[in-house]
Recover the amino acids of this structure.
């Protein structure tokens, strides 16, 4: 039942975004690509590793942690003078090695895909400069693979995805660059490039 509900939510979200994009396109939307660092996933993962390592007295240790950061892209358009609505796709890859006294070394890799519906409010909305905040919510799907000398285990999880951009600035007209500070699946800080259609 949970998978059905999640699939239904994703389908409804995609349908809503595609329908609204057609209506918004008349007012001129924007396509954007970006990169974010220190995502909610990576921060929570590091904290969990520290807690487990401490609680087990070092019998469980993590080495060689690597996080790709959030790579994202999407579309947004104005629905009223200062408010924009859009959809974003986010990808992140993470990997690490686990050292345990009983089982030796194993490797874990996780690929996370998220789809978010987002709102952005522009406090200052000049032609070349914008000061804004934003919020996004959606669903994330993670595929985890754990491998050691003997076996490979795979797992899939679906979670709530979110992004809160507390403050951000954008500069440019047809092409613009933006920097946002916040928390979520796009990171504590994310940089984006947008093209106005």
């Amino acid at each position: 039942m949970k998978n059905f509900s999640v699939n239904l939510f994703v389908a409804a979200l995609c349908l809503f975004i595609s329908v609204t994009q057609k209506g918004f396109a008349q007012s001129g939307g924007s396509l954007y690509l970006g990169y974010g660092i220190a995502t909610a996933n990576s921060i929570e993962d590091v904290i969990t590793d520290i807690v487990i390592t401490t609680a087990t007295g070092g019998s469980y240790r993590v080495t060689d942690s690597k996080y790709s950061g959030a790579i994202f892209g999407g579309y947004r358009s104005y629905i009223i003078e200062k408010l924009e609505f859009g959809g974003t796709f986010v990808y992140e890859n993470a990997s690490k090695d686990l050292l345990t006294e009983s089982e030796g070394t194993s490797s874990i890799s996780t690929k996370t895909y998220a789809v978010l519906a987002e709102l952005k409010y522009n406090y200052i909305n000049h032609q070349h400069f914008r000061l804004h905040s934003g919020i996004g919510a959606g669903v994330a799907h993670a595929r985890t693979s754990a491998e050691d000398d003997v076996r490979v285990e795979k797992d899939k999880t679906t979670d709530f995805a979110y992004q809160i951009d507390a403050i951000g600035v954008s500069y440019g007209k047809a092409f613009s660059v933006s920097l946002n500070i916040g928390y979520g699946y796009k990171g504590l800080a994310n940089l984006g490039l947008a093209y106005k259609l």
In short: Residues 103 and 110 are 20 Å apart (CA to CA). The beta strands are 30-37, 60-67, 70-78, 83-100, 104-125, 129-147, 152-172, 175-184, 189-196. The longest strand covers residues 104-125. Residues 22-26 have pLDDT under 50 and may be disordered.
